[in-house]
Amino acid sequence: MNHVHVVVDINIKSVALMDNDRKIVANAFYKRTGIKYENWIQAMAVQHKLNRRTDWFRVFLWLGCIPAFTFFSWYGIYKLVMWMLYG
Question: Which residues contact 35 (CB under 8 A, 6 or more apart)?
Answer without folding.
Answer: 29, 46
